[in-house]
Amino acid sequence: MDLAHVDMTLPQLAALAAALGWASGMRLYAVVFLTGAAGYLGWVTLPAGLQLLQHPLVLGASGLMVAVEFFADKIPGLDTLWDAVHTFIRIPAGAALAAGVFGGDQASWAVVAGLMGGALAATAHTAKATTRAAVNTSPEPFSNIGLSLLGDAAVPLLLWLAWEHPFVFWPLLALGIVLALVLIVVLLRFLRALVRRFLPAAPSATA
């Protein structure tokens, strides 16, 4: 379906806002670049609040950061540092992108979308960061690279589903949220146990 000349319906807008928020928690720069490139190439008509993403300067900057993140995310240790730094970038950016779907003409929906986008970005980011930190406890690099490639593939798929098949996107997002929450709880317990195992026991107080 070519959306270049079709006004997006509310379910499509809501799905796009949710996809931008969730995917930003995993690959913010890929989200910005792919969304902007789709608008620039005329594959879709971006909402007014997102049309800045298709500016050549924004495309150039986001494309460069996509390349940097692609390699940084596949190096054990560096990926965890990258995730830690981007805790302060992905979540507000996910909220801003989701709000931009509705723009200033629909302020109430923009606020709701921004809150939703920020929460989804935070959930996806936390699940990603804890998963990669847990995987980094293994000395072999292949699982790390495999998970990174899975994230690379998931972002364009989520954005495509939000544009083309919003009613398919929503149950998949719900499943992703449930899995993310389970991963966060399980892996945080695993990492805490690992830290307790390797930290020296505190000396007991003597009388």
Structural write-up:
- With 207 residues, the chain is mainly alpha-helical.
- It has one domain.
- It has 6 helices and no strands.
- The protein has helices at residues 10-40, 56-72, 78-100, 107-135, 142-164, 166-198.
- The chain is globular and about 60 Å long.
- The termini are far apart.
Short précis:
By secondary structure, the chain is mainly alpha-helical. The chain is built from six helices and no strands.
Indicate the structural class. Answer: mainly alpha
Outline, from the CA principal axes? Answer: globular
Give the C-alpha Rg: 19 Å
Helix content: over 70%
Roughly how many Å apart are the termini?
A: 78 Å
Order of helices and strands: HHHHHH
The mean pLDDT is 86
Specify the number of helices: 6
Write the SSE topology:
Layout: H1 10-40, H2 56-72, H3 78-100, H4 107-135, H5 142-164, H6 166-198
Defining key terms:
75% helix, single chain, globular, mainly alpha, 207 residues
